[in-house]
Structure formats: C-alpha cells, structure tokens
Amino acid sequence: MWKLSVPLLAFVSYVAGLNILLTNDDSWASANIRATYDALKADGHSVLLVAPAVQQSGKGGTFVLPTTNITEAGGEFGTIAAGAPYFGSDAQNGDLFYFNGTPAASVVFGIDVIAPKKFGSAPIDLVVSGPNEGQNNGPFVFTLSGTVGATYVSVERGIPAIAFSAGNNTHRSFTTNTGDASDPANLAAQVVKNLVASVAAGVNTTQERLLPLGVGLSVNIPTFGPESNCTAPPFVFTRLTGGALVAHISINSTTGFPVEDDIEATGINANINGVREDPGETPTSAGCLTAVSIFSVDYDAPERLALFIQHRLRAAVRGTLF
C-alpha cells in the first residue's frame, strides 16, 4: 500500500502561493468550505470562493444556470435574503461569492466571470472542490456527486482540480465553527491544505501545470475528530475501483415499493485503468486513511479493448457498416 511521504499535519514548502478557485456542493455557507478557505489563505494562497447559494448535493455534473434571483426561503442557513441577485458576495469579504446554480455551473461561473476580476490575466492554478459533507467513493457515486461534478468540469476546462470528500457528513453552517482545532471542519481543512501543498511542492506554475491536462484528483477523507479514534489519517494512493459499490433495487415486502441498497458488483470493480497494485478507495477510507485517487476525463476505453471490439464488429458486418 503506497503512502504519500507527507503526513497529515506536516508542513510542505512550495515556491509561491497559488491562485485557487474554491467551490463545493453544500453551499457557500457550509462549515467545511469556510474552514478550508481560511486554511488555504493562511497558507499563503490567493483564494476565491464561488459556490451554490443553497445545498446542491447529488447534482453530479448537472449544468443549470439561474433564471431568477434568490427566491424563498433565501440562501443556505439564512445567509442570503429572498429577492437578492442571483449572485453576490459576502458583505464582509469580497472574495466569498454565492451563485444560484448547480455546482458545475457555479464553478464555471467562477472561472469565466468572477476569477478574471480577482486574478486579472493570471490563470487559475487550481480548483479545489469541497470538502464535501460525506464521502464520494467509487465510480457510481463519483458521477452523482456535485463536489466531483464541479471538479471534472474544471478539469475538462483545462484547469487542474481536486475533489475533497469527508466522512463527517453533518450539514452545518460556518457560524457553528468555534475555531477549535479538533472541529471536523478544521481537521478536513488541514487535510486540504497539506495535500495542496504537496501537489504544489517544487512546481513553478508559470512554467508547468500542477497536474497533467485532463487529469484530476478525488480525495476521500475518513470520519475523524473527537467522536472518532481517528485523528491523523495519512494519505494513501488508491484507485476508484476495488470494493466499490453500486445501486441495487429490491421490493419492500411491507410497502410494495422499491428500495435501494448497495452491492459490490463486478462491472464497477473491473480493474481496467489505474495502478493495479493500488487498493480501492472505498475500503481504504473506511479506516483511518485518506484515499487519494487519480482520475482522467477521457472516458474512451483503452486501445487494446477498443481495437478488439472494432475488429469484431468489422468482421461481423464484413466492412459494410464500419
């Protein structure tokens, strides 16, 4: 099992602070995103937060733009009044923006509209999405998660991006964070800060990218904090498949309605790509370990499989179709 050389609470130096666009799907007012904003700022980065006005969990890459201003009952946790414009900034901090759209739409709005005002002609070095309130393990949840959806649309736009998802899944306002170092939101923020520092270590972003074009990271943080025996989960390289779960439907014998549970199916765990020796992220982050998976947005099958299918289809139709 490979582990990153940087422990959870270590400090990793880098050449200069990054231009970071921070987003999530749990709203601009969640405890996790605000704690992460503070941690990244304290580590020397220039950070712009652009996130949905309200909770938008489970939207995946759905791209919905606003057609109205903020409606009743206003922004998440009462942070925006009904009738307010469809986007706006915090009265006390002009780098904190809400947007009345889905996570994927919010991050693209940040890329195209807000970031040029913050960073000028300088590029966005990195998009950080999360930490989500709850894990996003495996390919099935990977495509459903708004946190990950905002990440892969950023990668598709050519910007390095990392999705962070935390096992602590309580949906709470940033105003509930007292600043205690053991608060799960602050612990998750430290994980984000340290991994961003590791990704940036030794990289001159004026000359090279933080991640290869078309590639991003999905990071699943275990449940940790005062209520857990886990306090310092190290980073472990993982893959999306391996112990991953997918939906299964059965009929409830009492109600007669369909119910969903999860099963470990063969298709979702086919080890086609990735580093075969790496463990799956699902069982890894179930313990006191932080799973770091590397994904690409190229959904084409590997050449060896694609050529095999092409050859078989050409032979079947004797070249009349293909």
Automatic annotation (TrEMBL):
Domain Survival protein SurE-like phosphatase/nucleotidase: 20-225
InterPro entries from the UniProt entry: SurE, SurE-like_Pase/nucleotidase, SurE-like_sf
The UniProt record lists the keyword Transmembrane helix: no
Family matches, as SUPFAM superfamilies: SurE-like
Tree of life domain: Eukaryota
Signal peptide (from-to): 1-17
Pfam families reported for this sequence: SurE
Gene Ontology molecular function terms on file: metal ion binding; nucleotidase activity
The keyword Signal appears for this protein: yes
Listed transmembrane segments: none
Keywords per UniProt: Hydrolase, Metal-binding, Signal
Family according to the record: Belongs to the SurE nucleotidase family.
PANTHER family (UniProt xref): 5'-NUCLEOTIDASE SURE (PTHR30457), PHOSPHATASE, PUTATIVE (AFU_ORTHOLOGUE AFUA_4G01070)-RELATED (PTHR30457:SF0)
Protein name (record): Survival protein SurE-like phosphatase/nucleotidase domain-containing protein
